[in-house]
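Morning, I've got a small favour to ask if you have a moment. I owe you a coffee for this, so here goes:
>
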Amino acid sequence: MIRVAVIDDHDVVRKGIIAYLDTEDDLEVVGEASSGFKGAELVKEIKPDVVLMDLIMDQGTGIEATEEIMKTEDCKIIILTSFYDDEKVFPALEAGAFSYMLKTSSADEIAEAIRKAYQGENVIEPKVATKMMTRLRKEKKPHEELTKRELEVLLCIGEGMTNQEIGEHLYIGIKTVKTHVSNVLSKLGVQDRTQAAVYAHRNQLLKKS
């Protein structure tokens, strides 16, 4: 039996979802709440397997509740909302939501999403999935922000060269090398040359050069 909690501030919506889920032999609604804060407390108390979470609620949003729950609990949270704009989608997923569905989904689709979540399978609303893919394509990796010369310096660091060796290899002065190294470390967000070298190898930059 999959134990489910439903958190939604609209009584009609919450009661309707619960009424349907109670007809399913393998699903059991073990708790409900009408706000994010109450929902987070409820989940910590009853420890359900899966949580259906609304986003826009008084006294604690779904995002705030998700963040609070994920600090200590291991349940799967399915966002069930009417919103799919960037300001809602990405913070919810970053907070730890496992799946993201719209309230236009059918009762059968919601029930199936609960089963999949319990089995470790995500369900992402197609409109949301499209946004995620678009965002991933737009996001650049840190090394893609390096200038051509800085990338050359990073590759040299990856090869284990000293500043002197880098200068001789690239035909530039030692002060210029130090400036490039400093810029590389800053742009990659790493602390030292060792971390920069690890970054270069981890991202297989040496194989591309």
Summary: The beta strands are 2-7, 27-33, 50-53, 76-81, 99-102.
